[in-house]
Every structure is written in C-alpha cells, then in structure tokens.
Amino acid sequence: MKIPITRPWFDDTEEKAVLEVLRSGWIAQGEKVRRLEELFAAYVERKYAVAVSSGTAALHLAVLTCKLGPGDEVLVPAFTWISTINAVEYSGATPVFCDIDPFSFNIDVEETKKRITSRTRAILPVHQFGLGADLNSVMRLAAEKSLLVIEDAACALGTYVERKHVGTYGQIGCFSFHPRKSITTGEGGVLVTNEAKDYESFLQLRNIGAATTPGDRTGMADFGALGFNYRMTDLQAAVGIAQFDKLSAILEKRRQCAKRYDDLIQGSSLQEWLQIPVQPKAREHSYQSYVTKIKTSDRSAEHLNAMREKRNDLIARLAVEGIQARPGTHAPPFLSYYRNKYQTHLQDYPHALEAEWLTIALPLYPQMTEGDQELVCSRLQSLWTGT
Ligand SMILES: Cc1ncc(COP(=O)(O)O)c(C=O)c1O
C-alpha cells in the first residue's frame, strides 16, 4: 500500500534494542519486561503495571481478577473491537450491550443506566479510537450502583480526561501494543492498577498460575490458580522501551495529522457528507484512529444499508489506488457469535449500527506528509461523488 492505514515508527533504536536482547541470551520475560512495566506505571501514574502478550489477554486477566463469572452481568459498549466483549464471555459472565453516543462513539451512560439489573456487577467503558469516555459520569454511576469499573484503554495511551490519564479511573486499566496503537511491541498489552492484590493476581495469572512467592529448594513454584501463558518476551519489551522514548513525539505528530485532516475536510466539499471526529471539552483525543462518519438525516434501514454499500465500495476503490481506509470498528452484538447467542436485533442498538455501517477510518501515522493527507482527501471526494 502506498498509504497504509498505519505504519509503526521504527528506526535503528528498535533494531539495536532487539539485537541487544538476542545477544544477551535472555529472550523470554525478564529485565526488559520489568523496565517497560516501570516506564508504563510512571507514565500513567499508577502503582503497578504488568505487561502481557496482548490487549485481549490484559482484558481477560482484568475480568478474572475482578472475579466476574457465571451469573454476573457486565455493561459493555455495543460498538468496540470484539476483544472487549470476548474477555467478559471467556469468564462465563454475561456481556450486556449498551448503545453508544453517536458522536464520540463511546458508551452512552444514560443508555447504560437502563440496562442495570440486580445481577450487574461491573461496567467496562472503552476509550474508543483514543478519545476518553465520559468517565465522570461512568464513575458516578459505578459509585451509586456499587459497580466495578474496568477500563478498556487499548487505544488510549496518551489520552487524558481532565488531566488524568485514562485507565486510571477504574480499578483496572487495560492497554494494547498492537501495531495500530500509538506505540507497538508487535503484539502486547499492559494492565495497570493501584491495588497490590490485583497486581499479585496479574502476575500469577499471566504466568500459568505459578505462585509469586519463592518455590521450594529446587526452584519449582506451586501453582495455586488456573493461569495462562500470557507472558511478554524481552524482545517485545525492548521494542516497547525504545518506542516509549518516541511516545510524546508520536502523539504530537498524530494530533497534528488529525488537525490537518480536520482542516482539509472542513475547508472543502468533503464537509457536506463527512463528519470529523469530535473532541468534547476536557476529554483529550490521542487519535489512535481518525474515524470519520458519513452524514445522514435519513435513518431508515434501507437508506443506511445503501450508504454502507457505498462506503464499502469507496474503501475498496481507495485500496485499488493504494490508499488503505477501514470501517471504524465492529458492533459485536451483530457479529454472528453474539447475535446467535444473545438473539440481538439491529434495531436494539441504533447508534452502534450506524457507527458500524457509516464510519471510515482514514490512514494516520506520524510519518504522513501533508501531500499524503491531501491525496487521501481528494481521492475520497472524487470517488464518493464520482467526479
Ligand atoms: C477497543 C479494543 N479493545 C481491545 C483490543 C485488543 O487488543 P489486542 O489486539 O492487543 O489484543 C483492541 C485492539 O485491537 C481494541 O481496539
């Protein structure tokens, strides 16, 4: 692709870091992972950070650490990457889908209130595409109803709500280092918490359930929990440490690119049909993705479906020209596993449906030039209008 949806920013620092680990002979979880965890905890201002093999693994361990399971209901947004929901499902707890706010794409707290029952134990807000959710309302609701809060901050390293880093409002925050995130380790994730007991649980569960206290004289630990191999390698962590040095530059460049798209769209005919991402006051955006939405006043299923077809056609034609765009993300209640299991209907989550059908994530990465962005915008307009 000439202009991919994302492109990690690597240079010889990452190469040297990986080589150093290779030459050291210690490539599994070790000192580099510990160092990455220290950097992460300090950055988000949390006592503990534990690195794992993916953001999905982080969410899974968060749900297990909160002891959610069969009979418990967990409030989740109806528009998010499927991992958010799968983490709840793995535990045997029931995900309860809540519609989203149509502009911020984050969970709609008023909708969420309507879904609370005597079984509701937790709420799992997502900071979608790098925009902080309405955490003040989420935390107020959680306090009123005695709910646990696990934040899915997979997309949100560098995102703040009222100057406090997201992922640090709830009991546990979960992050991802997938290549589409601001910094990457290839695959990887992190859990953060201020609770020592959660920290102990993360350490044990990521290491196949091995006790964290020293084992017997042979060095073999006892296994007191059913854990997983969710460890991160030192190779990955070394990349993560090198990426951390670039984090503020990456975030700044991403914000600059986002602002440039805002200006290009709003200063052209694109603004007649394309809505730019919103940034509510005091909720900073780190633009993990720059997600636009096709404007429409006709909300009939027929019209929305026609717009979806036109959007898909646009994305396919852009790809032919070497420009990679994508739908924002999924509405998991409409994916067949969840649709079949929970008998969901399209009309149950109208804003999530609209977001799934009408969003377009544009390419965004720190190395993008003004020329790249101008080309994306001009091709968008021509292909949409057929001119
Ligand atoms: C909102 C959200 N949650 C969870 C995940 C899962 O992260 P990972 O891909 O690292 O497993 C992603 C990532 O793609 C995500 O976008």
Order of H and E elements: HHEHEHEHEHEEEEEHHEEHHHEH
Task: Supply Rg.
Answer: 21 Å
Global structural class: alpha/beta
Quote the average pLDDT: 97
List the ligand species.
Answer: pyridoxal-5'-phosphate
Specify the number of helices.
Answer: 12
Ranges where pLDDT stays below 50 over 5 or more residues in a row are none
Global morphology: globular
Brief synopsis:
With 387 residues, this protein is of the alpha/beta class. The protein contains 12 helices and 12 strands. Residues 54-56, 80-81, 83-84, 126, 152, 154-155, 176, 178, 189 line the site of pyridoxal-5'-phosphate.
Describe this structure as you would to a colleague:
This protein is an alpha/beta fold. It is 42% helix and 13% strand. The protein has twelve helices and twelve strands. The protein has helices at residues 12-24, 31-44, 55-65, 82-91, 109-114, 135-145, 196-206, 234-266, 301-320, 336-342, 350-358, 370-385, and strands at 48-52, 73-77, 94-98, 120-123, 148-152, 160-161, 164-165, 172-176, 189-193, 274-275, 290-294, 359-362. A seven-stranded mixed beta sheet has the order 1-9-8-5-4-2-3, with helices on both faces. β4 (120-123), α6 (135-145) and β5 (148-152) form a beta-alpha-beta unit. α2 (31-44) runs parallel beside α8 and α8 (234-266) crosses α12 (370-385). Bound molecules: pyridoxal-5'-phosphate.
Secondary structure layout:
Layout: H1 12-24, H2 31-44, E1 48-52, H3 55-65, E2 73-77, H4 82-91, E3 94-98, H5 109-114, E4 120-123, H6 135-145, E5 148-152, E6 160-161, E7 164-165, E8 172-176, E9 189-193, H7 196-206, H8 234-266, E10 274-275, E11 290-294, H9 301-320, H10 336-342, H11 350-358, E12 359-362, H12 370-385
Parallel strand pairs: 2-3, 2-4, 4-5, 5-8
Antiparallel strand pairs: 1-9, 6-7, 8-9, 10-11, 11-12
Helix pairs in contact: 1-8, 2-8, 3-4, 3-7, 8-12, 9-12
